[in-house]
Amino acid sequence: MKDFALTVVHPSGEKTNLTATPQEDCYRASFTPTEKGTYTVIMDNDKIEVYDLTKHNIGIFKAYYHATAKIQVGEKIESTIIDNENSITIKNVSEKAGEVKLQVFYKNEILPNHDFNVFVPDQWTKKLRTDEEGYVTFSLPWTGTTYVVEATFKEETSGKYNDVDYNFVWHCASLSVKI
């Protein structure tokens, strides 16, 4: 987990790389907003070791993890940006209070008719599916709760990472949403 990159994309498009410091059970980084608008925080990790889960009938795979978070400064609500030409990402395009609208991309291209999950820590989970344009709109049952949205994609590409062969790449993107 330690080899991830953390970037903040400002409303103007400027990018700031952050340095995260390890804590007891998390990593911590900070930045000070300099303008009003929507900031997108991006965490990428493509330096994850190869997993061998053949004993669970999954296979041998290389993982790629991408997470985004939306930070809103001021009243103007805008979409998060997508900036992931190598993997899967979730764009938050929500415009109305109490309603979540997302769009899913794979290698910066729309990912239509794709399943993903919404869940909260108490084990509540809901499976949703994007439309032909990669969009999904939904309401969440509890206010004041942080929900996690997760989309995955299996890329049927074999290769080698750190001298270990793998049969496919498992891409995972997550986004936290609080209503």
What does this structure look like?
- It is a single chain.
- This protein has strands at about 5-10, 15-20, 20, 25-30, 35-45, 50, 60-75, 90, 100-105, 110, 115-120, 125-130, 135-140, 145-155, 160, 165, 170-179.
- With about 180 residues, the protein is mainly β.
- The protein has one domain.
- Strands 1, 2, 5, 6, 7, 11, 12, 14 and 17 form a nine-stranded mixed sheet that branches.
- Strand 6 (about 50) and strand 7 (about 60-75) form a beta hairpin.
- The protein is globular.
- The mean pLDDT is about 90.
Short description:
The chain has one domain (5-178).
Major beta-sheet overview:
9 strands, mixed
Mean pLDDT: 88
The tally of structural domains comes to: 1
Q: Helix/strand/pairing class, anyone?
A: mainly beta
Provide the succession of SSEs. EEEEEEEEEEEEEEEEE
The helicity comes to under 10%
Weakly predicted, low-confidence segments: none
Report the count of strand segments. 17
The general outline is globular
Radius of gyration: 17 Å
* SS strand fraction: over 45%
Distance between the termini: 28 Å
How many helical elements? 0
Write the layout of secondary structure elements.
Elements (H helix, E strand, L loop, with lengths): L4 E5 L5 E4 L2 E2 L4 E2 L8 E9 L5 E2 L7 E14 L14 E5 L6 E8 L2 E2 L4 E5 L5 E5 L5 E5 L6 E10 L3 E3 L2 E3 L1 E11 L1
Parallel strand pairs: 7-17
Antiparallel strand pairs: 1-2, 1-5, 3-4, 5-7, 6-7, 8-9, 9-10, 9-13, 11-12, 11-14, 14-17, 15-16
